[in-house]
Amino acid sequence: MPPPFVTFSRNVFIPLTNICRNRCGYCGFRRDIGHPEAKLLSPAEVTDILERGARSGCSEALFTFGERPDEVDGFMSLLDGLGYDSIIDYLADLCRLAIAHGLLPHSNPGVLAKKEIERLKPCNASMGLMLETTGIINAHKGCAGKDPEKRIETIRAAGELGIPFTTGILVGIGETRDDRISSIHTIRDTQEEFGHIQEVIIQNFIPKPGTGMASWHPPGTEEMIKTVTMARQNLPEDVAIQVSPNLIHPKELVQCGASDLGGISPETIDYINPESPWPGILELQDMVDVPLRERLPIYPRYIRKKWYSKGIAPLIHKLSDAEGFRKKY
After folding, report:
1. Is 295 exposed, middle or buried (0-12, 13-18, 19+ CB in 10 A)?
2. How far is CA 205 from the centre of its chain?
3. Exposed, middle or buried, 273 (CB in 10 Å: 0-12/13-18/19+)?
4. Would you state the pLDDT for residue 329?
């Protein structure tokens, strides 16, 4: 059964740094120190993105970056040049900068300790970490942050702290169907314990040139339909299933239970999948057979339950309507 409507958020994608301790076999985002495309965005660069997002009517500032970049030799000198000795402290200040520009932060910093999540909680409307898979796969060999248990610990810690959270799985990276079922069951069990998971992304792998999996075949539509259907059957009803409309046409996936299309940016590309442009909002409506509703990075039910800090409360009240969706502007 398709949902009565499909949601999306209007955001800016802020790739704070592409330096990462992991070397996943499918990732085209990561860069080594010394590579001409390796970067750590400055406050001025982030400000420019935020200002463009505010002018375009965005409500979300999506902060994404390589996991534990401080463990990569040479990164700390870049951070020190900006006057920081902690990437988490830098992120927290940039989140406050986003709030000042009228955008609600949603941070995806990778595996974190509970005290680091607690540090970020007051300045984030929501946070996220892809579980990816509970399976042990070759694509994650040698990647300290892709240990499923460590990722589950981070997801659970966010639940203990009452943070609205996004997680999900990657389909087609070497996992089995049983791995996918196990991953969804793990997410379901975590949600039943803490109640903080607002959406689960079912994301299809896209091969990237120059990576170890460049020649792999991505999952087809039928495989994605089966995975979305399985997820919808196993997850609690109030947890949205998100699919990425720049990676796969969402129409058939909406028909089998997907109800969210994630962040769509009028100003920034998908830096993780730069070869796949976002559809425009009008195009997005044409891609599904049900009405669209714009949301904030924090889902309506968590707004109604007041799962947000005093620091972002005024902005949430300004941007949300009586039901907790994005107010028309």
Report:
1. buried
2. 15
3. middle
4. 67
Q: Which amino acid is at 313?
A: A
Q: Which residues pair with 15 in a beta bridge?
A: 64
Query: What is the predicted pLDDT for the residue at 2?
Result: 79
Residue 255: CB atoms within 10 A of its CB come to 17
For residue 272, give both structure tokens. 């993780």
Q: Smallest Cα–Cα separation from 138: which of 19, 24, 284?
A: 24
Tell me the H-state helices in the chain.
43-55, 75-81, 87-100, 114-120, 148-160, 177-194, 221-234, 251-255, 281-287, 300-304, 313-319
Backbone angles phi, psi at 111, to 5 degrees: -65, 130
> How much is the pTM?
0.97
Separation CA 254–CA 299 (nearest Å)? 18
Query: Which residue type, as a one-letter code, is found at position 57?
Result: G
* Domains (range + CATH), the chain: 6-319 (3.20.20.70)
Burial 27-50 (b: 16+ CB within 10 A, else e): bbbbbeeeeeebebbeeeebbebb
CA distances in angstroms from 315 to 41, 49, 99, 107, listed in the order given: 25, 19, 7, 17
Q: How far apart are CA 103 and CA 296, in angstroms?
A: 10
What is the predicted pLDDT for the residue at 238?
A: 95
What pLDDT is stored for residue 26 in this prediction?
97
Tell me the backbone φ, ψ of residue 126, rounded to 5 degrees. -160, 165
**How many residues does the structure list for the chain?**
329
Q: Which residue has the tokens 């990647």?
A: 143
Residue (of 242, 258, 251, 255) closest to 284 by Cα position: 251
Q: Which amino acid is at 284?
A: L
Whose tokens are 């870049």? That residue is: 78
- Specify the DSSP element, H or E, that contains 230: helix 221-234
Per-residue HEC secondary structure of 72-111 comes to CCCHHHHHHHCCCCCHHHHHHHHHHHHHHCCCEEEEECCC
